[in-house]
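Q: Give me the 3D complex with S-adenosylmethionine.
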Amino acid sequence: MRGNLYLVATPIGNLEDITFRALNVLKKVDLIAAEDTRNTLKLLNYFEIKKTLISYHRHNEEIKKDNIIEQLKEGKNIAIVSDAGTPGISDPGEVLVREAIRENINIIPVPGACAAINALICSGLDTTEFLFIGFLPLNKKLRNDKIEEIKNATQTIIVYEAPHKLEKTLIDLKDILENRKVVIARELTKIHEEFIRGTVDEVIEKSCDLKGEMIILIEGREKIKQENYLNNMTIEEHYNYYAKKGLEKKEIIKKIAKDRNVSKNEIYQQFINKK
Ligand code: SAM
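A: Here is the predicted complex, encoded as structure tokens.
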């Protein structure tokens, strides 16, 4: 019989945030694949768990996944843990999960801490809909595309950032944010846990030289502004706006017609028939 693949969330600072179930799974599996074995060893030592650890991180993900899948096929139960929080969320995990699905292996989530969700619930921003960006790309073109996506998003936006890049990222975002609310969630669950709230200018002023782990949360663009924004586009720009989001032609026409409060037929006549 094949083994199970467990994705186990670990604390993002405060070790008491590990669940009973996570500890039981870590105790019972045959081995733990960890992003940084030294880091996970500290966690295991704290909870007096002795277990074989193998390294599984971004740079060896492709090579190690085959070996992990082989062991799962042989019947071993394996847990994946990242350095902190939930595996697969801006951390390794996704590649292995896809491969495990292909190989018909049972995948089991073991829920726990996730920095993004805990930052969101204390931010004071809308929690009904949110857009998780993770880390902004470093490549200039890709970064600008993401910033454009942030500009147009009506949901609360969550961005992970390293402390030494925080100021530069806030400056990059400054022009598109106008007076939107921004929150920095810093050092969650740790001694220096802090939420800094304000406009982007206010937050920049309060954030210089901040240390530790942090998340940027941004209020979504007002829906009404979004509608005006779309209506001020040419139909071709409006079409491309949805095409970039990966929508099919039929769906795009439907959305443009709804945004502009006109019939689908009218959109076809004005734009599609010319194409
Ligand atoms: N998988 C993790 C999770 O579930 O949240 C995220 C890992 S990602 C490599 C690390 C980033 O998460 C940090 O740069 C920071 O943006 C955010 N982060 C992690 N722990 C945090 C904490 N205690 N306080 C604030 N942000 C944190």
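A quick observation: The radius of gyration is 22 Å.
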